[in-house]
Amino acid sequence: MMNNFYKFLDNDELLEQFSKKIVDILENEISKKGSATLLVSGGNTPKALFDKLSNINISWDKVKIGLCDERWIDTKEKDSNENLVKTHLIKNYAKEAKFISMYLENISIQEAQKKCTQIYKEELYPFDIVILGMGEDGHTASLFPNNIKLEEAFDLNSDGLCIFMTPCSAPYDRMSLNLKAILSARNIFLHIEGKKKLKVYNEALENNDRFNTPIISVLKQEMKDIEVFYYE
């Protein structure tokens, strides 16, 4: 399938165009079926986008928001993706949205994998929008390079939507959407910025080793188009 690549030299213009695209989809889904789902990623890149979206007046009370991945730490910790999303997105107009937590208290991450899938199936699935990020090591969500669980994460016949990962090169255990869950979304976006990530993205398009560069599993598949929003 196609990767539609949109390059912006002005981040304000990217935010304007990207937020409009997201809002149009949400409003269309709300119009069609009365509700919409939006799954987002953490990190520094989407903070400005979240702030922008929070100030757009739509029927946020009909939107459910979830995460593509989460660190297995208390949601009050600064490294929690839930904390980031609640700080930058679930405010202003968007405070009316319902947030579905990926982190579960008082349960090990191993035990939580099936429970997380159950919650996501009940509350968020099917996904209308998934917004992915990408690390300079080529990871996306919490699908990290050369991880022992990647084969399971890439299994499109999996019954689950969530998978726990222990990264070799990053702190904290993580819960993540698996590839089947990501590719099930009606609309898939990749949001990246900076020349280093552009280099990783371009190299991924020339490579086929998805275990070494997991973003390849999303960019080079035959199921869904991917829309890439990039700011130089």
Structure description:
With 232 residues, this protein is of the alpha/beta class. It has a single domain (3-231), classed as Rossmann fold (3-Layer(aba) Sandwich), CATH 3.40.50.1360. The chain is built from 8 helices and 10 strands. The protein has helices spanning 11-33, 47-54, 81-88, 109-123, 150-153, 179-184, 195-205, 216-219; strands at residues 3-8, 36-40, 63-67, 69-71, 98-99, 129-132, 162-165, 174-177, 187-193, 226-231. A 7-stranded parallel β-sheet has the order 1-10-9-6-2-3-5, sandwiched between helices. The protein has a 3-stranded antiparallel β-sheet with strand order 4-8-7. Strand 2 (36-40), helix 2 and strand 3 (63-67) form a beta-alpha-beta unit. The longest helix is centred in the N-terminal third of the chain and has 23 residues, at 11-33. The chain is globular. The model has no long low-confidence stretch (mean pLDDT 97).
Strand-pairing-aware structural class: alpha/beta
CATH architecture: 3-Layer(aba) Sandwich
* Sequence stretches where pLDDT stays below 50 over 5 or more residues: none
* Rounded average pLDDT: 97
The level 1 CATH classification is Alpha Beta
Count of spatially separate domains: 1
Strand order of the largest sheet: 1-10-9-6-2-3-5
* Residues in β-strands, percent: 15-25%
What name does the CATH topology carry? Rossmann fold
Q: How much helix is in the residues?
A: 25-40%
Largest sheet: number of strands, sense, barrel closure: 7 strands, parallel
Based on Cα principal axes, name the global outline: globular
Measure the end-to-end span: 25 Å
Report the strand count: 10
Q: How do the helices and strands follow one another from N- to C-terminus?
A: EHEHEEHEHEHEEHEHHE
Radius of gyration using CA atoms only: 16 Å
- Number of helical segments with 4 or more residues: 8
